[in-house]
Amino acid sequence: MITRTTRIRFGILIAAAALTLTGCSGAATSTTDTADTPARDAIEMSDAWVKSAESGMSAGFGELTNDSDADVTVVSATTEASPMLELHETVENENGEMVMRQIEGGFVIPSHGSLMLEPGGNHIMLMDLAAPLTAGEGVTFTLTFSDDSTYEFTAPVKDYSGANETYEGGEMNMGTGQ
């Protein structure tokens, strides 16, 4: 036989469990709301520009800012200016030379932070240019994020004599003659 005291304790236990689950449910909802926000809504590109080039290769630069509570990953980029784009980093190889190479996993833009795309560092590499990139023109890029959302921006083309790193493996060079 269940005593009255046991029933009261059991009732209090059930009420406490219900309140705890309700509290967890509210927290899960806010986390889900953040996760459901597309990355494109949290990202902004500023100071974008592209290196002018007659042919071959070029690169896109700027600052990507993430205004969300979660890291955002850029997994690819496209543009009509080039049929082949790669997300690159510039690193020192075993011979002490600075070389460009495709970054594994894409660019991570930290929560409430930014990522600089700059000569001698991370950048968007344009290979096999479709046509010359002349200073004063604009190049439109579409970034794709790990959540499959996309973000479009246009970058002006500028003359720049730097960014002459060698592509890892030595098969390409982003020299001033291109």
From TrEMBL:
Secretion signal span: 1-27
Keyword terms of this UniProt record: Signal
Signal among keywords: yes
Originating species: Microbacterium algihabitans
Keyword Coiled coil: no
Chain coiled-coil ranges: none
PROSITE patterns reported in the protein's UniProt record: PROKAR_LIPOPROTEIN
Top-level taxon: Bacteria
Name of the protein: Copper chaperone PCu(A)C
InterPro entries, per the entry: LpqE-like, Lxx211020-like, PCuAC_sf
Pfam families named in the record: PCuAC
